[in-house]
Amino acid sequence: MNLKILLLILFSYLIGSIPSAYILGRILKGIDIRKFGSGNVGATNAFRVLGVTPGVFVLIFDLSKGFFCVTYLVDFLNLTTSLTRILTGLCCVSGHNWTVFLGFKGGKGIATTLGVLVGLAIKIENLEFVVGLVILTWLVIFFLTRIVSLASILSGIALPIYMVLFKQSNALVLLSVILSGFILIRHRLNIKRLLCGKELPFKKLV
Length: 206
Known about the structure:
72% helix, mainly alpha
């Protein structure tokens, strides 16, 4: 395999692996955020445990990881094909979900996935409609239920459906199926709580 491709895979995984919520928890409160709230190292738990401002920072940082990798990192290494961008995005989300810095136990990947999709939409024609619909789906479900996990799960399921409906490439459809699978796997405990009616709305968590 081309050395530059290997570097792209490695760097995108490592960038995705940066656990911003964990780092802020240590810096701001001297705690391991994995031992508080839901135990997740993502934006929702950062809002819950660390507060609004740190939560916003984690959200933006995690989103930016995905965006940076599929745009600037790919461009910097001069590997500007749709396939390399898709591979880069997948590696970045994998890094966030299974970070090497925390024993391969990371976040749930929603913000980083969104960053990847937004970055891809800027670089790949006609993808913006799919990304817009995914965001709209998340917002509608969240504002109706106030349950972050439900909005994330259903918008994740909708992602490959929208890809097919808008006749995206086979590579993008495959990426969407994998990302949807990641979302379901990382939310398996949330799914159990939803089925039992025990998943709390966001307004009760902040």
